[in-house]
Model the fold of this input.
Amino acid sequence: MAQPRPMLRTRKLVRDFRGFRAVNEVNLEVAAGSVHALVGPNGAGKTTLFNLLTGFLAPTSGRVELDGHNVTGLPPERITRLGVARSFQITSLFPQLTARDHVELALMSSSGLGHKFWRSAKLVHRFADRAMAILDEVNLAELALSTADSLPYGRKRALELAIAVALHPRLLLLDEPTAGMGLEDVDRTVELIAKVRAGRTVVMVEHNMSVVGRLADRVTVLQAGRVLVEGSYDEVRNDDRVITAYLGGADAAH
Done:
């Protein structure tokens, strides 16, 4: 059976900071259409790796490929135009804009009309129906006219996911999508990611191993900037190196 083509691949990716090697010759391969989780403790290099994949940092050496094309060192806006969207660990929303405003702006941006956002209400309303469909996809339709600052934390993260979906990404990168959430919001977010992954490739950094187990097709464990273990969730959670060094018996059992 033929293996799915990689949507994302890195080769010997390195990033140094003043003598400290945060990412150390990482080889990563993410199959198209899969959910691939990056796990590991604080300082393992996960966020730095995300920044390299999305152009917010340039690698010291090595290579990043998107769907077979070399994107090493391209700036974030170029990588975004190639079909990559990133959801940040810290939510950045416009407090006084409504949920629908945010999604309409993202839709305009992906259409090339984003720079005209403030010029014409007609341009904004052109995307109203599609914006509502996306908000419905993430269970926010009833809050479409609520301002971002009035939304509960979990709903803010759902709006952030809606904004990312509005960019029509082939590759969606999620940085700690359930961080700071209560159990109800975690369950809701897992359901949303499972829904929006259809037709997309997802790479996520996530500390909650229950979430990883429910969503990830493949898991890469990082240690001090290197790949320690890679495999299915069951393979990783039962690996003695992972259990001993990172997860602990209790977490690994979930």
Summary: The chain has ten helices and ten strands.
